[in-house]
Amino acid sequence: MGISTISVRVPDEVKQDLKYFEKEEKLTQTSEAARKLLMIGLESWQRERALQLLEQGKVSFSKAAHIAKMDLWSFADLIQERKIVWIKDLDMLREDIRAAK
Fold first, then answer.
1. How many domains does the chain have?
2. Is residue 7, in this structure, part of any structural domain at all?
């Protein structure tokens, strides 16, 4: 995985919140805090997006797990926690069974 640099302008309030997060997490640099929060936010977004696409029937279970960057079992646990009904199409179910083999 390569490393890239980005520059972001944020309101003063966000900068203060970031400094607070940095202190609470015992991090040494604001950029380290920003990276950690960015990763947390992206992971959350990926999971929510995968759940949304699965629930809408736009992707299969295995594809949704891939989008969420989770293994199949952890993703199944997440679906169960959220009480999401995802088996709506027999073809997608067959695809998931093939992918699980």
1. 1
2. no
3 within a domain of the structure (yes/no)? no
Residue 11 in tokens: 């309101």
The H-or-E segment that residue 17 falls in is helix 12-24
Determine how many CB atoms are found less than 10 A away from the CB of residue 53: 16
- 101 residues of the chain, pLDDT tens digit each: 688 898 989 999 999 999 999 999 999 999 999 999 999 999 999 999 999 999 888 888 889 999 999 999 999 999 999 998 777 667 777 776 777 66
Instruction: Find the domain containing 89 and state its range.
Output: 12-100
pTM for the predicted model, two decimal places? 0.78
- Residue 92 included in any domain: yes
Question: Can you list the alpha helix ranges (DSSP code H) found in 26-83?
Answer: 30-55, 61-68, 72-82
